[in-house]
Amino acid sequence: MVTMIAAAAENNALGKDNDLLWRLPDDFKRFKKLTSHHPIIMGRKTFESFDGLLPNRTHFVITRNENYDPGKGVYVVKSLSLALKIAQDLDENPFIIGGGEIYKMGLERTDKIELTRVHESFEDADTFFPDIAEEEWKLTEEVFHEKDEKHKYSFSYLTYERK
């Protein structure tokens, strides 16, 4: 099973200038809980937005740059297909974690989407999550989180499974 995990605004905004548009500590905790001990697949820019390797996860970075060397502990691959093939040999549930182009490429190869829907729109974003076609996906779980002192925006955890 391939799972895509993301946090996107009401207008599908993901980020701007290779950074998130919000900080939601509870969403970070959920991301860590769901992806720990599984391969994570991402584009180069997403990888470079991290401070370092995320603990307890095997990292796959997709790039066309044949000389890209992020260091020890990272698989560098030329395509999503190759990343998925290797990742699924290691673990039955790899996660696609971004960015925007990788999400677009991965949507047709994904079985499940774990989406945090941020209840706000961000018009100045430069990266967006693809539309989720209702005829292809079934919403199987929804959990609302009100804004509070740690969370500037309210949000919902949405789980979609392919029909």
| Strand ordering within the main sheet | 6-5-4-7-1-8-11-10
Tell me what portion of residues adopts beta-strand conformation: 25-35%
Uncertain stretches of 5 or more adjacent residues: none
Mean pLDDT: 97
Q: What is the element string, with H for helices and E for strands?
A: EEEHEHEEHEHEEEE
> What is the count of helical runs?
4
InterPro entries: DHFR (IPR012259), DHFR-like_dom_sf (IPR024072), DHFR_dom (IPR001796)
Enzyme class: oxidoreductase
Organism: Zunongwangia profunda
Pfam family, one: DHFR_1
Structural notes for this entry:
With 163 residues, the chain is an alpha/beta fold. The chain has one domain (3-162): Dihydrofolate Reductase, subunit A. 21% of the residues lie in helices and 35% in strands. It has four helices and eleven strands; from the N terminus they run E-E-E-H-E-H-E-E-H-E-H-E-E-E-E. The protein has helices at residues 25-35, 44-48, 80-90, 100-106; strands at 3-9, 13-16, 19-20, 39-43, 58-62, 74-77, 95-98, 112-118, 127-128, 137-145, 155-162. The strands form two sheets. The protein has an eight-stranded mixed sheet with strand order 6-5-4-7-1-8-11-10, sandwiched between helices. The longest helix has 11 residues, at 25-35. The model has no long low-confidence stretch (mean pLDDT 97). InterPro entries: DHFR, DHFR-like_dom_sf, DHFR_dom. It catalyses: (6S)-5,6,7,8-tetrahydrofolate + NADP(+) = 7,8-dihydrofolate + NADPH + H(+). Pathway: Cofactor biosynthesis; tetrahydrofolate biosynthesis; 5,6,7,8-tetrahydrofolate from 7,8-dihydrofolate: step 1/1.
